[in-house]
Every structure is written in structure tokens, then in C-alpha cells.
């Protein structure tokens, strides 16, 4: 229930639900799935058996279930570990929120805008954004997998309970990795629909006001492509937040363990 609550309240779930409500036509065509509920059903019967075996193996780790379990392990440098994770998160946030260079035209345009200026028409196609999102996902995946392993290695130096937790996290990462990748792979589809929604809303507003379109204003603050860029950043940051949940969970457990030892 705790995981279900954290997923339901995550920025990713809230953002996708908001987009679905705003894109009312498509939302009416297909019932909305509870993303957190889908995630909570990832473990099938075979997975449950494998997890049970892994738990038994973890419980048999040295120091588990005997008098040594109550003895504190080596002192963890939690302040340094917190700073390390915060720095990694800040660096990743900077990467994800960096503004992309607008595409330049490869040939003359029908609207006679100067050749040296960014091509707004090319930017209106999702082909200009999809590869960038996938590349940022790849970099996010590489960095956070390494960070998770480093945090896991650090807390495994603590008490027997933390060593068990680190071992369990490694098992869960292996079991859920492929399913997580399928979830992340579905996000560009949501982003593509968001681009179409922004463009359609922009065109409807022009028709309602009887105004002519000005492509060079699309990327300016308030323009529909500018708004889409904010959407893309929001989705990337929301994805990062969910990807960070196992790491923040490990840190919270380590802090709780350290606090309990000090009492």
C-alpha cells in the first residue's frame, strides 16, 4: 500500500493524468489505467516464487536472525552519502532541463524566413523531439543505475539489517528491470500526443480569433512550442523522480537505522 501511495502521488502519475484530462477527446476513447496499480501487479506467480527464494537466501546472510543482528555495523557516513546523491540529482536535473538547440533548415522554405534562423516547421514535428527524449532517458538510466549501485554498496557496509536490504534491492532491481524499461519506453508516446494536443489547441485558438499564424513566435514565451518544451522538461523530471524512488528508499532506511541505533 505504501508503494502504491507513493506512485499514485508521484509527479509522473499526476502529470499523465492531467494531460489525459486536458486531451479530452482521446481520454474518452480509452479508459485511463491506474499507473500505480499496473506497477503493483508486476510480480507474477513465477516472480513471487523467485522472490520468496531470494528472501530466504537473504535471511540466511551472516548476522541475520541471531544475536549479531542487533549489533550495529560500521558507522555510515550518511552526511557524505546524502551530499553525493544530491549532487548526482542536481547534475541530472541540469542535463534534463537544458534547452535544446532549435533545428536549422536544410533547404529553402516556403515561408521565405531567413535560412540562418531555426526552422519552426521542423520543430513542430515530433521527429525533432523524440530522439532527444530517448537520448536523455538513456543518460538518465546510465547515471541512476550507477548511483543506485553505489548507494546500495554504501549501506551494505552498515548493520546486518541494511545488508539484507541492500541484497533485497539488488534482487528487486534484477526482477523488475525489464518491466521498468517497458514503462519508460511508453513515455515518448505520451509526449508525442502532448505535442499534437498543443498544436491542435494553438490552431483552434487562431481560428476562434481569426488570426493568421506566425511560426516564428511558436518558440517564444507563451507560444505553443515553448509550452511543449516545458511539458517535455516536466515529463523528464517526473520520470527522474520515480526512477529515484529506490535510491531515496535506501537512504531513508539507512537514516532510520542510524537514528534507531542512536536512541
Give your account of this protein's structure.
With 263 residues, the protein is mainly alpha-helical. The chain has one domain (47-61, 75-102, 118-262). The chain is 70% helix and 0% strand. The chain contains 10 helices and no strands. Residues 1-5, 27-32 and 64-73 have low confidence and may be disordered.
Can you summarize this structure?
The chain has one domain (47-61, 75-102, 118-262).
Task: Give keywords.
263 residues; mainly alpha; elongated; 10 helices; disordered N terminus; 0% strand
Q: What share of the residues lie within helices?
A: over 70%
Q: Kindly, what is the distance between the CA atoms of the first and last residues, rounded to a whole number of angstroms? A: 28 Å
**Rg calc:** 23 Å
Order of helices and strands: HHHHHHHHHH
| Domain count | 1
Shape: elongated
Note poorly predicted spans: 1-5, 27-32, 64-73
Q: What is the secondary structure topology, with strand pairs?
A:
Layout: H1 2-8, H2 11-22, H3 24-29, H4 35-40, H5 45-59, H6 78-97, H7 120-123, H8 130-155, H9 160-209, H10 224-262
Helix pairs in contact: 2-10, 5-9, 6-8, 6-10, 8-9, 8-10, 9-10
Amino acid at each position: 500500500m505504501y508503494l502504491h501511495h507513493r506512485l499514485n502521488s508521484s509527479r509522473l502519475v499526476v502529470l499523465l493524468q492531467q494531460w489525459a484530462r486536458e486531451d479530452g477527446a482521446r481520454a474518452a476513447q480509452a479508459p485511463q489505467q491506474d499507473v500505480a496499480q499496473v506497477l503493483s501487479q508486476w510480480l507474477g506467480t513465477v516472480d513471487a516464487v523467485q522472490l520468496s527464494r531470494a528472501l530466504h537466501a537473504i535471511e540466511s546472510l551472516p548476522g541475520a536472525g541471531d544475536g549479531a543482528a542487533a549489533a550495529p555495523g560500521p558507522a555510515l557516513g550518511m552526511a557524505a552519502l546524502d551530499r553525493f546523491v544530491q549532487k548526482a540529482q542536481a547534475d541530472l536535473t541540469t542535463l534534463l532541463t537544458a534547452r535544446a538547440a532549435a533545428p536549422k533548415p536544410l533547404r529553402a522554405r516556403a515561408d521565405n524566413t531567413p535560412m540562418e534562423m531555426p526552422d519552426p516547421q521542423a520543430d513542430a514535428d515530433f521527429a525533432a523531439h523524440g530522439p532527444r527524449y530517448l537520448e536523455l532517458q538513456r543518460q538518465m538510466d546510465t547515471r541512476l543505475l550507477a548511483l543506485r549501485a553505489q548507494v546500495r554498496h554504501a549501506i551494505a557496509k552498515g548493520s546486518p539489517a541494511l545488508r539484507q536490504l541492500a541484497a533485497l534491492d539488488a534482487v528487486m532491481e534484477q526482477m523488475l528491470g525489464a518491466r521498468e524499461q517497458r514503462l519508460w519506453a511508453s513515455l515518448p508516446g505520451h509526449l508525442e500526443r502532448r505535442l499534437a494536443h498543443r498544436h491542435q489547441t494553438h490552431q483552434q485558438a487562431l481560428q476562434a480569433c481569426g488570426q493568421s499564424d506566425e511560426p516564428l513566435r511558436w518558440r517564444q514565451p507563451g507560444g505553443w512550442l515553448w509550452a511543449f518544451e516545458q511539458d517535455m522538461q516536466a515529463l523528464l523530471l517526473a520520470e527522474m523522480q520515480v526512477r529515484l524512488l529506490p535510491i531515496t528508499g535506501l537512504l531513508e532506511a539507512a537514516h532510520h537505522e542510524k537514528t534507531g541505533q542512536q536512541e
